[in-house]
Protein backbone atom coordinates (compact mmCIF):
# COMPACT_ATOMS: atom_id res chain seq x y z
CA UNK A 1 0.00 0.00 0.00
CA UNK A 2 2.86 2.44 0.67
CA UNK A 3 4.37 2.29 -2.87
CA UNK A 4 0.85 2.60 -4.28
CA UNK A 5 0.20 5.70 -2.18
CA UNK A 6 3.57 7.14 -3.24
CA UNK A 7 2.60 6.73 -6.90
CA UNK A 8 -0.67 8.57 -6.25
CA UNK A 9 1.19 11.35 -4.42
CA UNK A 10 1.73 13.17 -7.74
CA UNK A 11 -1.81 14.51 -7.34
CA UNK A 12 -2.91 13.18 -10.72
CA UNK A 13 -5.92 10.96 -11.39
CA UNK A 14 -5.05 7.30 -11.76
CA UNK A 15 -6.59 4.14 -13.12
CA UNK A 16 -5.90 0.93 -11.30
CA UNK A 17 -4.44 -0.70 -14.41
CA UNK A 18 -1.80 2.03 -14.66
CA UNK A 19 -0.99 1.72 -10.96
CA UNK A 20 -0.71 -2.04 -11.30
CA UNK A 21 1.75 -1.82 -14.19
CA UNK A 22 3.82 0.77 -12.32
CA UNK A 23 3.92 -1.37 -9.18
CA UNK A 24 4.94 -4.44 -11.17
CA UNK A 25 7.92 -2.53 -12.54
CA UNK A 26 8.91 -1.16 -9.11
CA UNK A 27 8.66 -4.60 -7.51
CA UNK A 28 10.49 -6.20 -10.47
CA UNK A 29 7.83 -8.86 -10.89
CA UNK A 30 8.31 -11.55 -13.52
CA UNK A 31 5.53 -12.81 -15.76
CA UNK A 32 5.35 -15.89 -13.53
CA UNK A 33 4.84 -13.64 -10.49
CA UNK A 34 2.03 -11.76 -12.20
CA UNK A 35 0.33 -14.97 -13.38
CA UNK A 36 0.35 -16.69 -9.98
CA UNK A 37 -3.20 -17.79 -9.21
CA UNK A 38 -5.31 -17.65 -6.05
CA UNK A 39 -7.35 -20.71 -5.03
CA UNK A 40 -10.37 -18.98 -6.56
CA UNK A 41 -8.69 -18.84 -9.97
CA UNK A 42 -7.87 -15.11 -10.05
CA UNK A 43 -4.43 -13.53 -10.35
CA UNK A 44 -2.86 -12.98 -6.92
CA UNK A 45 -1.01 -9.78 -7.83
CA UNK A 46 -4.13 -8.22 -9.40
CA UNK A 47 -6.06 -9.27 -6.33
CA UNK A 48 -3.55 -7.68 -3.93
CA UNK A 49 -3.50 -4.39 -5.84
CA UNK A 50 -7.30 -4.34 -5.90
CA UNK A 51 -7.50 -4.80 -2.15
CA UNK A 52 -4.79 -2.17 -1.57
CA UNK A 53 -6.87 0.39 -3.46
CA UNK A 54 -10.00 -0.53 -1.54
CA UNK A 55 -8.25 -0.42 1.86
CA UNK A 56 -6.67 2.97 1.16
CA UNK A 57 -9.95 4.37 -0.06
CA UNK A 58 -11.89 3.07 2.93
CA UNK A 59 -9.29 4.71 5.21
CA UNK A 60 -9.84 8.02 3.42
CA UNK A 61 -6.33 8.10 1.92
CA UNK A 62 -7.58 7.74 -1.66
CA UNK A 63 -10.79 9.05 -3.19
CA UNK A 64 -12.72 8.33 -6.37
CA UNK A 65 -12.77 11.19 -8.88
CA UNK A 66 -15.29 9.34 -11.01
CA UNK A 67 -16.07 5.77 -11.86
CA UNK A 68 -12.87 3.72 -12.04
CA UNK A 69 -10.54 6.69 -11.41
CA UNK A 70 -9.08 7.80 -8.08
CA UNK A 71 -6.65 10.35 -6.59
CA UNK A 72 -4.86 10.91 -3.29
CA UNK A 73 -6.64 12.89 -0.56
CA UNK A 74 -5.28 15.51 1.86
CA UNK A 75 -5.35 12.79 4.52
CA UNK A 76 -3.21 10.61 2.31
CA UNK A 77 -0.69 13.43 1.80
CA UNK A 78 -0.52 14.01 5.56
CA UNK A 79 0.34 10.37 6.09
CA UNK A 80 3.17 10.51 3.53
CA UNK A 81 4.62 13.59 5.26
CA UNK A 82 5.29 11.32 8.24
CA UNK A 83 7.58 9.24 5.97
CA UNK A 84 6.22 5.90 7.24
CA UNK A 85 8.31 2.80 6.65
CA UNK A 86 5.21 0.90 5.69
CA UNK A 87 1.43 1.20 5.50
CA UNK A 88 -0.34 -1.90 6.78
CA UNK A 89 -3.70 -2.93 8.21
CA UNK A 90 -2.59 -2.02 11.72
CA UNK A 91 -1.86 1.53 10.56
CA UNK A 92 -5.18 1.80 8.71
CA UNK A 93 -7.07 0.88 11.86
CA UNK A 94 -6.03 4.26 13.27
CA UNK A 95 -8.52 5.87 10.90
CA UNK A 96 -12.17 5.88 12.08
CA UNK A 97 -13.44 5.57 8.51
CA UNK A 98 -11.60 2.26 8.14
CA UNK A 99 -12.70 0.93 11.53
CA UNK A 100 -16.31 1.84 10.71
CA UNK A 101 -16.05 -0.11 7.46
CA UNK A 102 -14.31 -3.24 8.70
CA UNK A 103 -14.09 -3.03 12.47
CA UNK A 104 -11.02 -4.20 14.34
CA UNK A 105 -10.95 -7.67 12.84
CA UNK A 106 -9.67 -6.88 9.36
CA UNK A 107 -7.45 -9.56 7.84
CA UNK A 108 -3.69 -9.03 8.14
CA UNK A 109 -3.23 -9.94 4.50
CA UNK A 110 -5.38 -9.47 1.37
CA UNK A 111 -8.22 -12.02 1.15
CA UNK A 112 -7.91 -14.67 -1.56
CA UNK A 113 -11.09 -13.53 -3.31
CA UNK A 114 -11.30 -10.19 -5.15
CA UNK A 115 -13.13 -7.31 -3.44
CA UNK A 116 -16.73 -6.76 -4.41
CA UNK A 117 -16.00 -3.09 -5.03
CA UNK A 118 -12.88 -3.21 -7.18
CA UNK A 119 -11.71 0.18 -8.49
CA UNK A 120 -9.99 0.21 -11.86
CA UNK A 121 -10.58 1.50 -15.33
CA UNK A 122 -13.25 -1.16 -15.75
CA UNK A 123 -15.34 0.42 -13.01
CA UNK A 124 -16.43 -0.62 -9.54
CA UNK A 125 -17.51 -4.20 -9.05
CA UNK A 126 -16.03 -5.38 -12.32
CA UNK A 127 -13.38 -7.89 -11.26
CA UNK A 128 -13.93 -11.09 -13.17
CA UNK A 129 -16.36 -13.38 -11.42
CA UNK A 130 -15.17 -16.71 -10.03
CA UNK A 131 -16.24 -18.23 -13.34
CA UNK A 132 -13.62 -16.11 -15.11
CA UNK A 133 -16.07 -14.77 -17.70
CA UNK A 134 -16.25 -11.06 -18.57
CA UNK A 135 -18.59 -9.22 -20.92
CA UNK A 136 -17.80 -6.71 -23.68
CA UNK A 137 -19.42 -4.61 -26.37
CA UNK A 138 -17.44 -4.58 -29.64
CA UNK A 139 -18.52 -1.71 -31.90
CA UNK A 140 -18.15 -1.45 -35.68
CA UNK A 141 -18.69 1.62 -37.82
CA UNK A 142 -20.83 0.60 -40.83
CA UNK A 143 -18.91 3.13 -42.91
CA UNK A 144 -15.85 0.92 -42.60
CA UNK A 145 -17.14 -2.59 -41.88
CA UNK A 146 -20.35 -4.47 -42.70
CA UNK A 147 -20.75 -6.20 -39.34
CA UNK A 148 -24.33 -7.27 -40.07
CA UNK A 149 -23.28 -9.10 -43.21
CA UNK A 150 -20.18 -10.65 -41.65
CA UNK A 151 -22.00 -11.91 -38.55
CA UNK A 152 -24.83 -13.34 -40.66
CA UNK A 153 -22.63 -15.17 -43.15
CA UNK A 154 -19.51 -16.17 -41.20
CA UNK A 155 -19.16 -18.42 -38.17
CA UNK A 156 -16.07 -16.53 -37.01
CA UNK A 157 -14.81 -12.97 -37.48
CA UNK A 158 -11.56 -11.22 -36.56
CA UNK A 159 -11.50 -8.11 -34.39
CA UNK A 160 -8.82 -5.57 -33.57
CA UNK A 161 -8.46 -5.06 -29.80
CA UNK A 162 -7.30 -1.54 -29.07
CA UNK A 163 -7.89 -1.37 -25.31
CA UNK A 164 -8.41 -3.70 -22.34
CA UNK A 165 -5.90 -6.05 -23.96
CA UNK A 166 -4.82 -7.44 -20.62
CA UNK A 167 -8.42 -8.14 -19.55
CA UNK A 168 -10.08 -9.69 -22.57
CA UNK A 169 -9.79 -13.48 -22.33
CA UNK A 170 -10.80 -16.55 -24.31
CA UNK A 171 -14.38 -17.50 -23.44
CA UNK A 172 -15.54 -13.95 -22.68
CA UNK A 173 -18.97 -12.95 -24.03
CA UNK A 174 -19.12 -10.26 -26.73
CA UNK A 175 -22.14 -8.21 -27.75
CA UNK A 176 -21.62 -7.01 -31.34
CA UNK A 177 -22.72 -3.42 -31.84
CA UNK A 178 -23.26 -1.46 -35.06
CA UNK A 179 -22.72 2.31 -34.76
CA UNK A 180 -24.63 5.01 -36.64
CA UNK A 181 -28.14 6.41 -36.60
CA UNK A 182 -29.67 2.97 -35.95
CA UNK A 183 -26.98 1.97 -33.44
CA UNK A 184 -27.51 -1.16 -31.41
CA UNK A 185 -26.67 -4.82 -30.74
CA UNK A 186 -27.08 -7.21 -33.66
CA UNK A 187 -25.44 -10.43 -32.42
CA UNK A 188 -23.78 -12.23 -29.51
CA UNK A 189 -20.54 -14.17 -29.67
CA UNK A 190 -17.61 -15.26 -27.58
CA UNK A 191 -13.84 -14.86 -27.75
CA UNK A 192 -12.56 -18.00 -29.43
CA UNK A 193 -8.87 -17.11 -29.47
CA UNK A 194 -6.51 -14.16 -28.96
CA UNK A 195 -3.48 -13.50 -31.14
CA UNK A 196 -0.56 -11.10 -31.05
CA UNK A 197 -0.63 -10.79 -34.83
CA UNK A 198 -3.68 -11.71 -36.90
CA UNK A 199 -5.12 -10.18 -40.03
CA UNK A 200 -8.53 -10.01 -41.65
CA UNK A 201 -9.24 -13.28 -43.48
CA UNK A 202 -9.85 -13.30 -47.23
CA UNK A 203 -13.48 -14.40 -46.80
CA UNK A 204 -14.00 -11.51 -44.40
CA UNK A 205 -12.44 -8.88 -46.67
CA UNK A 206 -15.61 -8.48 -48.73
CA UNK A 207 -17.25 -6.98 -45.64
CA UNK A 208 -14.53 -4.32 -45.27
CA UNK A 209 -15.69 -1.05 -46.83
CA UNK A 210 -13.45 0.81 -49.27
CA UNK A 211 -11.89 3.68 -47.34
CA UNK A 212 -8.44 5.17 -46.91
CA UNK A 213 -8.48 4.30 -43.21
CA UNK A 214 -8.82 0.63 -44.10
CA UNK A 215 -5.75 0.35 -46.34
CA UNK A 216 -3.99 -1.61 -43.59
CA UNK A 217 -6.74 -4.27 -43.34
CA UNK A 218 -4.32 -7.01 -44.39
CA UNK A 219 -1.64 -5.86 -41.94
CA UNK A 220 -1.31 -8.05 -38.79
CA UNK A 221 -2.79 -6.59 -35.61
CA UNK A 222 -3.39 -7.59 -32.00
CA UNK A 223 -6.87 -9.03 -31.89
CA UNK A 224 -9.25 -11.89 -31.35
CA UNK A 225 -11.33 -14.38 -33.28
CA UNK A 226 -14.97 -14.05 -32.29
CA UNK A 227 -17.24 -17.08 -32.63
CA UNK A 228 -20.75 -15.99 -33.64
CA UNK A 229 -23.27 -17.74 -31.38
CA UNK A 230 -26.56 -15.87 -31.73
CA UNK A 231 -27.94 -13.52 -34.39
CA UNK A 232 -30.68 -11.28 -33.04
CA UNK A 233 -33.87 -11.37 -35.13
CA UNK A 234 -34.37 -7.70 -34.28
CA UNK A 235 -31.63 -5.24 -33.39
CA UNK A 236 -31.68 -3.99 -29.79
CA UNK A 237 -31.43 -0.29 -30.50
CA UNK A 238 -29.59 2.36 -28.55
CA UNK A 239 -32.79 4.26 -27.73
CA UNK A 240 -34.27 1.22 -25.99
CA UNK A 241 -31.13 0.79 -23.87
CA UNK A 242 -31.13 4.48 -22.88
CA UNK A 243 -34.59 4.04 -21.41
CA UNK A 244 -33.56 1.06 -19.28
CA UNK A 245 -32.67 1.89 -15.62
CA UNK A 246 -29.72 -0.54 -15.66
CA UNK A 247 -28.52 -0.35 -19.27
CA UNK A 248 -28.91 3.40 -19.69
CA UNK A 249 -25.49 3.98 -18.10
CA UNK A 250 -23.53 1.52 -20.24
CA UNK A 251 -20.00 2.57 -21.13
CA UNK A 252 -20.75 2.63 -24.87
CA UNK A 253 -23.67 5.01 -24.25
CA UNK A 254 -21.66 7.36 -22.03
CA UNK A 255 -18.50 7.40 -24.16
CA UNK A 256 -19.27 5.91 -27.58
CA UNK A 257 -15.86 6.56 -29.14
CA UNK A 258 -13.87 3.36 -29.59
CA UNK A 259 -14.30 -0.29 -30.54
CA UNK A 260 -14.06 -2.18 -27.22
CA UNK A 261 -16.27 -1.40 -24.21
CA UNK A 262 -16.65 -3.09 -20.82
CA UNK A 263 -20.06 -4.42 -19.76
CA UNK A 264 -20.73 -4.89 -16.05
CA UNK A 265 -22.10 -8.16 -14.71
CA UNK A 266 -25.39 -6.44 -13.83
CA UNK A 267 -25.63 -4.97 -17.35
CA UNK A 268 -24.86 -8.38 -18.87
CA UNK A 269 -27.72 -9.96 -16.94
CA UNK A 270 -30.07 -7.24 -18.15
CA UNK A 271 -28.86 -7.62 -21.75
CA UNK A 272 -29.22 -11.40 -21.65
CA UNK A 273 -32.74 -10.96 -20.36
CA UNK A 274 -33.57 -8.70 -23.31
CA UNK A 275 -31.88 -10.95 -25.86
CA UNK A 276 -32.84 -14.41 -24.72
CA UNK A 277 -36.09 -14.07 -22.79
CA UNK A 278 -38.26 -14.41 -25.86
CA UNK A 279 -40.03 -17.72 -25.35
CA UNK A 280 -39.39 -20.55 -27.79
CA UNK A 281 -42.50 -21.71 -29.63
CA UNK A 282 -44.34 -24.53 -27.90
CA UNK A 283 -43.42 -27.99 -29.19
CA UNK A 284 -46.23 -30.29 -28.08
CA UNK A 285 -46.15 -33.97 -27.19
CA UNK A 286 -48.43 -34.63 -30.17
CA UNK A 287 -45.98 -32.92 -32.54
CA UNK A 288 -43.06 -34.79 -30.97
CA UNK A 289 -44.85 -38.08 -31.55
CA UNK A 290 -45.68 -37.09 -35.10
CA UNK A 291 -42.07 -36.16 -35.90
CA UNK A 292 -40.40 -39.19 -34.31
CA UNK A 293 -42.97 -41.94 -34.84
CA UNK A 294 -42.79 -43.01 -31.19
CA UNK A 295 -46.00 -43.26 -29.20
CA UNK A 296 -46.91 -40.27 -27.04
CA UNK A 297 -47.04 -42.27 -23.79
CA UNK A 298 -43.43 -43.46 -24.12
CA UNK A 299 -42.20 -40.00 -25.08
CA UNK A 300 -43.92 -38.40 -22.08
CA UNK A 301 -42.36 -40.98 -19.75
CA UNK A 302 -38.89 -40.33 -21.19
CA UNK A 303 -39.27 -36.56 -20.91
CA UNK A 304 -40.40 -36.89 -17.28
CA UNK A 305 -37.45 -39.19 -16.53
CA UNK A 306 -34.99 -36.61 -17.91
CA UNK A 307 -36.61 -33.89 -15.81
CA UNK A 308 -36.72 -36.02 -12.68
CA UNK A 309 -33.14 -37.29 -12.84
CA UNK A 310 -31.59 -34.33 -14.60
CA UNK A 311 -29.71 -36.54 -17.02
CA UNK A 312 -30.51 -39.61 -19.11
CA UNK A 313 -28.94 -41.82 -21.76
CA UNK A 314 -30.72 -43.12 -24.86
CA UNK A 315 -29.06 -46.44 -25.68
CA UNK A 316 -29.51 -49.07 -28.34
CA UNK A 317 -28.06 -50.64 -31.50
CA UNK A 318 -27.14 -48.57 -34.57
CA UNK A 319 -29.92 -47.12 -36.67
CA UNK A 320 -32.51 -46.76 -33.90
CA UNK A 321 -32.59 -42.97 -34.16
CA UNK A 322 -30.93 -42.13 -30.84
CA UNK A 323 -29.43 -38.78 -31.84
CA UNK A 324 -32.53 -37.67 -33.75
CA UNK A 325 -34.76 -38.57 -30.81
CA UNK A 326 -32.41 -36.84 -28.34
CA UNK A 327 -32.65 -33.61 -30.34
CA UNK A 328 -36.45 -33.80 -30.54
CA UNK A 329 -36.76 -34.57 -26.81
CA UNK A 330 -34.51 -31.58 -26.12
CA UNK A 331 -36.77 -29.41 -28.29
CA UNK A 332 -39.74 -30.60 -26.26
CA UNK A 333 -38.00 -29.80 -22.96
CA UNK A 334 -36.96 -26.26 -23.94
CA UNK A 335 -40.20 -25.34 -25.71
CA UNK A 336 -42.21 -22.54 -24.20
CA UNK A 337 -39.17 -21.13 -22.41
CA UNK A 338 -36.04 -19.19 -23.27
CA UNK A 339 -33.56 -22.04 -23.03
CA UNK A 340 -31.45 -23.66 -25.73
CA UNK A 341 -29.90 -26.97 -26.70
CA UNK A 342 -26.34 -27.77 -27.68
CA UNK A 343 -24.71 -30.91 -29.08
CA UNK A 344 -21.22 -32.16 -28.25
CA UNK A 345 -19.77 -35.45 -29.48
CA UNK A 346 -17.41 -37.50 -27.35
CA UNK A 347 -14.54 -39.54 -28.77
CA UNK A 348 -11.60 -41.51 -27.31
CA UNK A 349 -9.34 -38.43 -27.23
CA UNK A 350 -11.90 -36.23 -25.45
CA UNK A 351 -10.57 -35.07 -22.09
CA UNK A 352 -11.40 -33.20 -18.89
CA UNK A 353 -9.57 -30.18 -20.30
CA UNK A 354 -11.98 -30.10 -23.26
CA UNK A 355 -15.16 -30.57 -21.23
CA UNK A 356 -14.54 -28.88 -17.86
CA UNK A 357 -11.41 -26.69 -17.96
CA UNK A 358 -7.71 -26.84 -18.75
CA UNK A 359 -4.60 -24.82 -19.45
CA UNK A 360 -4.29 -23.55 -23.02
CA UNK A 361 -1.52 -21.45 -24.62
CA UNK A 362 -2.48 -17.89 -25.60
CA UNK A 363 -0.48 -15.32 -27.60
CA UNK A 364 0.63 -12.14 -25.86
CA UNK A 365 0.98 -8.82 -27.64
CA UNK A 366 4.76 -9.32 -27.91
CA UNK A 367 4.35 -12.71 -29.57
CA UNK A 368 5.27 -14.81 -26.54
CA UNK A 369 2.92 -17.35 -25.03
CA UNK A 370 1.04 -17.31 -21.76
CA UNK A 371 -0.69 -20.35 -20.36
CA UNK A 372 -4.17 -19.64 -19.08
CA UNK A 373 -6.93 -21.71 -17.56
CA UNK A 374 -9.62 -21.93 -20.25
CA UNK A 375 -13.17 -23.08 -19.62
CA UNK A 376 -14.37 -26.19 -21.43
CA UNK A 377 -17.63 -26.89 -23.25
CA UNK A 378 -19.66 -27.81 -20.17
CA UNK A 379 -18.59 -24.79 -18.09
CA UNK A 380 -19.34 -22.50 -21.04
CA UNK A 381 -22.71 -24.21 -21.39
CA UNK A 382 -23.45 -23.58 -17.69
CA UNK A 383 -22.43 -19.92 -18.06
CA UNK A 384 -24.98 -19.50 -20.85
CA UNK A 385 -27.65 -21.45 -18.93
CA UNK A 386 -27.20 -19.18 -15.92
CA UNK A 387 -28.39 -16.27 -18.07
CA UNK A 388 -31.68 -18.05 -18.89
CA UNK A 389 -34.75 -19.06 -16.93
CA UNK A 390 -35.85 -21.84 -19.31
CA UNK A 391 -34.44 -25.35 -19.47
CA UNK A 392 -31.13 -25.77 -21.31
CA UNK A 393 -30.23 -29.18 -22.70
CA UNK A 394 -26.77 -30.51 -23.53
CA UNK A 395 -26.81 -33.53 -25.84
CA UNK A 396 -23.67 -35.67 -25.55
CA UNK A 397 -23.55 -37.88 -28.63
CA UNK A 398 -21.64 -41.18 -28.38
CA UNK A 399 -21.18 -40.60 -24.65
CA UNK A 400 -19.56 -44.01 -24.05
CA UNK A 401 -16.74 -43.42 -26.52
CA UNK A 402 -14.83 -41.27 -24.03
CA UNK A 403 -13.31 -42.19 -20.66
CA UNK A 404 -16.22 -40.74 -18.71
CA UNK A 405 -14.66 -40.83 -15.25
CA UNK A 406 -11.70 -38.81 -16.57
CA UNK A 407 -13.75 -36.40 -18.69
CA UNK A 408 -16.34 -35.62 -16.02
CA UNK A 409 -13.99 -35.22 -13.03
CA UNK A 410 -15.84 -33.31 -10.29
CA UNK A 411 -19.00 -33.47 -12.39
CA UNK A 412 -19.39 -37.13 -11.33
CA UNK A 413 -20.22 -35.92 -7.80
CA UNK A 414 -22.42 -33.06 -8.94
CA UNK A 415 -24.55 -35.26 -11.20
CA UNK A 416 -25.71 -37.07 -8.07
CA UNK A 417 -25.80 -34.05 -5.75
CA UNK A 418 -27.12 -31.33 -8.01
CA UNK A 419 -27.71 -28.82 -5.23
CA UNK A 420 -24.01 -28.84 -4.23
CA UNK A 421 -21.06 -26.75 -5.41
CA UNK A 422 -17.55 -28.13 -5.96
CA UNK A 423 -14.12 -26.51 -6.07
CA UNK A 424 -12.45 -27.38 -9.37
CA UNK A 425 -8.90 -28.73 -9.45
CA UNK A 426 -7.76 -25.89 -11.71
CA UNK A 427 -9.41 -23.15 -9.66
CA UNK A 428 -12.89 -21.73 -9.50
CA UNK A 429 -16.07 -23.60 -8.66
CA UNK A 430 -18.81 -25.49 -10.47
CA UNK A 431 -22.48 -25.87 -9.65
CA UNK A 432 -24.86 -27.30 -12.21
CA UNK A 433 -27.60 -24.71 -12.81
CA UNK A 434 -31.02 -26.02 -11.86
CA UNK A 435 -32.29 -25.50 -15.42
CA UNK A 436 -29.61 -27.73 -17.03
CA UNK A 437 -30.51 -31.15 -18.44
CA UNK A 438 -28.15 -33.67 -20.06
CA UNK A 439 -29.12 -36.28 -22.67
CA UNK A 440 -26.50 -38.77 -23.77
CA UNK A 441 -26.66 -41.27 -26.63
CA UNK A 442 -24.89 -44.62 -26.48
CA UNK A 443 -24.42 -47.08 -29.32
CA UNK A 444 -24.48 -50.51 -27.67
CA UNK A 445 -22.72 -52.07 -30.67
CA UNK A 446 -19.61 -49.99 -30.01
CA UNK A 447 -17.47 -52.13 -27.72
CA UNK A 448 -14.21 -50.31 -28.51
CA UNK A 449 -14.74 -48.37 -25.28
CA UNK A 450 -15.75 -50.09 -22.02
CA UNK A 451 -19.41 -49.64 -21.17
CA UNK A 452 -20.46 -47.12 -18.59
CA UNK A 453 -19.37 -48.13 -15.08
CA UNK A 454 -21.82 -48.71 -12.25
CA UNK A 455 -20.97 -45.40 -10.53
CA UNK A 456 -22.15 -43.50 -13.57
CA UNK A 457 -25.10 -45.78 -14.27
CA UNK A 458 -26.84 -44.78 -11.07
CA UNK A 459 -26.48 -41.10 -11.97
CA UNK A 460 -28.38 -41.42 -15.26
CA UNK A 461 -31.79 -42.66 -16.26
CA UNK A 462 -31.32 -45.22 -19.05
CA UNK A 463 -33.88 -45.18 -21.87
CA UNK A 464 -33.64 -48.21 -24.22
CA UNK A 465 -34.32 -48.02 -27.95
CA UNK A 466 -34.95 -51.09 -30.11
CA UNK A 467 -35.68 -51.31 -33.84
CA UNK A 468 -39.34 -50.21 -34.05
CA UNK A 469 -40.82 -51.66 -37.22
CA UNK A 470 -44.11 -49.86 -36.69
CA UNK A 471 -42.32 -46.55 -37.24
CA UNK A 472 -40.91 -47.91 -40.51
CA UNK A 473 -44.34 -49.11 -41.60
CA UNK A 474 -46.08 -45.80 -40.77
CA UNK A 475 -43.35 -43.77 -42.49
CA UNK A 476 -43.80 -45.42 -45.88
CA UNK A 477 -47.59 -45.39 -45.56
CA UNK A 478 -47.62 -41.68 -44.73
CA UNK A 479 -45.15 -40.78 -47.46
CA UNK A 480 -46.84 -43.10 -49.99
CA UNK A 481 -43.43 -44.17 -51.28
CA UNK A 482 -44.72 -47.35 -52.87
CA UNK A 483 -41.94 -49.32 -51.21
CA UNK A 484 -42.86 -52.88 -50.03
CA UNK A 485 -42.26 -52.10 -46.34
CA UNK A 486 -43.82 -55.38 -45.12
CA UNK A 487 -41.27 -57.45 -47.01
CA UNK A 488 -38.40 -55.38 -45.60
CA UNK A 489 -39.81 -55.68 -42.07
CA UNK A 490 -40.01 -59.47 -42.38
CA UNK A 491 -36.39 -59.61 -43.59
CA UNK A 492 -35.16 -57.33 -40.80
CA UNK A 493 -37.05 -59.37 -38.21
CA UNK A 494 -35.45 -62.57 -39.49
CA UNK A 495 -31.99 -60.95 -39.46
CA UNK A 496 -32.27 -59.36 -36.02
CA UNK A 497 -33.52 -62.60 -34.46
CA UNK A 498 -30.13 -64.09 -35.28
CA UNK A 499 -28.11 -61.19 -33.90
CA UNK A 500 -27.26 -60.15 -30.34
CA UNK A 501 -29.75 -57.44 -29.32
CA UNK A 502 -26.93 -54.91 -28.90
CA UNK A 503 -26.00 -55.30 -32.59
CA UNK A 504 -29.41 -55.38 -34.27
CA UNK A 505 -29.98 -53.41 -37.46
CA UNK A 506 -32.13 -50.34 -36.87
CA UNK A 507 -34.74 -48.79 -39.13
CA UNK A 508 -33.17 -45.38 -39.72
CA UNK A 509 -31.24 -46.78 -42.71
CA UNK A 510 -34.59 -47.18 -44.48
CA UNK A 511 -36.49 -44.00 -43.60
CA UNK A 512 -36.11 -42.42 -47.04
CA UNK A 513 -38.63 -41.23 -49.59
CA UNK A 514 -36.40 -42.63 -52.39
CA UNK A 515 -35.75 -45.97 -50.72
CA UNK A 516 -36.87 -47.94 -53.76
CA UNK A 517 -34.02 -46.40 -55.78
CA UNK A 518 -31.40 -46.42 -53.03
CA UNK A 519 -31.96 -49.61 -51.03
CA UNK A 520 -29.53 -51.74 -53.04
CA UNK A 521 -26.65 -49.36 -52.36
CA UNK A 522 -27.71 -48.96 -48.73
CA UNK A 523 -27.74 -52.71 -48.20
CA UNK A 524 -24.47 -53.41 -50.03
CA UNK A 525 -22.49 -50.42 -48.75
CA UNK A 526 -23.86 -49.91 -45.22
CA UNK A 527 -25.68 -52.98 -43.92
CA UNK A 528 -23.62 -55.80 -45.46
CA UNK A 529 -20.17 -54.50 -44.31
CA UNK A 530 -21.61 -54.37 -40.78
CA UNK A 531 -22.85 -57.97 -41.10
CA UNK A 532 -19.52 -59.14 -42.54
CA UNK A 533 -17.84 -58.03 -39.33
CA UNK A 534 -20.50 -59.61 -37.13
CA UNK A 535 -20.59 -62.95 -39.04
CA UNK A 536 -16.85 -62.97 -39.81
CA UNK A 537 -16.58 -66.64 -38.65
CA UNK A 538 -19.97 -67.71 -40.04
CA UNK A 539 -19.74 -67.30 -43.83
CA UNK A 540 -22.81 -69.46 -44.49
CA UNK A 541 -24.90 -67.29 -42.20
CA UNK A 542 -23.68 -64.21 -44.01
CA UNK A 543 -24.66 -65.69 -47.37
CA UNK A 544 -28.31 -65.73 -46.22
CA UNK A 545 -28.33 -61.95 -46.14
CA UNK A 546 -26.51 -61.02 -49.32
CA UNK A 547 -28.42 -58.63 -51.53
CA UNK A 548 -29.22 -61.19 -54.21
CA UNK A 549 -31.28 -63.24 -51.71
CA UNK A 550 -32.65 -60.32 -49.68
CA UNK A 551 -33.94 -58.54 -52.78
CA UNK A 552 -36.36 -61.31 -53.65
CA UNK A 553 -37.52 -61.78 -50.07
CA UNK A 554 -38.36 -58.08 -49.79
CA UNK A 555 -40.40 -58.26 -52.98
CA UNK A 556 -38.32 -56.12 -55.31
* Class derived from helix and strand content: alpha/beta
Mean pLDDT across the residues is 85
**How many domain modules?**
4
Overall number of strands: 18
- Which regions contain 5 or more consecutive residues with pLDDT less than 50? 117-131
CATH topology of the largest domain: Rossmann fold
Total DSSP helices: 25
Q: In CATH's first tier, which class of the largest domain applies?
A: Alpha Beta
What is the H level of CATH, i.e. the homologous superfamily of the largest domain?
Answer: P-loop containing nucleotide triphosphate hydrolases
General description of the model:
The protein is α/β, with parallel strands linked by helices and 556 residues long. It has four domains: 2-102, Arc Repressor Mutant, subunit A (Orthogonal Bundle), CATH 1.10.10; 135-276, ph1033 like domains (ph1033 like fold, Roll); 285-464, 3-Layer(aba) Sandwich (Rossmann fold), CATH 3.40.50.300; 470-554, no CATH class. Helix content is 37%, strand content 20%. The strands form five sheets. The chain has a six-stranded mixed sheet. Strands 11-14-17-10-18 form a five-stranded parallel sheet, with helices on both faces. Strands 1-3-2 form a three-stranded antiparallel sheet. A hairpin with a 5-residue loop joins strand 12 (357-363) and strand 13 (369-375). Helix 1 packs across helix 2 (16-26) and helix 13 packs antiparallel against helix 15. The longest helix is centred in the C-terminal third of the chain and has 20 residues, at 515-534. Residues 117-131 have low confidence and may be disordered.
Amino acid sequence: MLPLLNIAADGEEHKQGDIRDNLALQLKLTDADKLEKTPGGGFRFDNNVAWAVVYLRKAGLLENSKRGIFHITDQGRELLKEAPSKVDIKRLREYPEFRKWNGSESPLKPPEEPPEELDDELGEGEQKSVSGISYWVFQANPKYYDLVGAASELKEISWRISRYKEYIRVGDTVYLWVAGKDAGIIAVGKIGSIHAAISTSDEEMKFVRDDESQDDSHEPFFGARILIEHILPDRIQKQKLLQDPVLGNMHILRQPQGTNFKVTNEEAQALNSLIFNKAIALYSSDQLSEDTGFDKESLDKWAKAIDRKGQAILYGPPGTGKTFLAERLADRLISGGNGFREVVQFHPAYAYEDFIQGIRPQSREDGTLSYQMVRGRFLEFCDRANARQGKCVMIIDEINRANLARVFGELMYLLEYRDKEMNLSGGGTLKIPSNVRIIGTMNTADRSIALVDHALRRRFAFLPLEPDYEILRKYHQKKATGFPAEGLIQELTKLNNQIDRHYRIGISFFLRDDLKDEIEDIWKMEVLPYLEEYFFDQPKKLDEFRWEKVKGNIGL
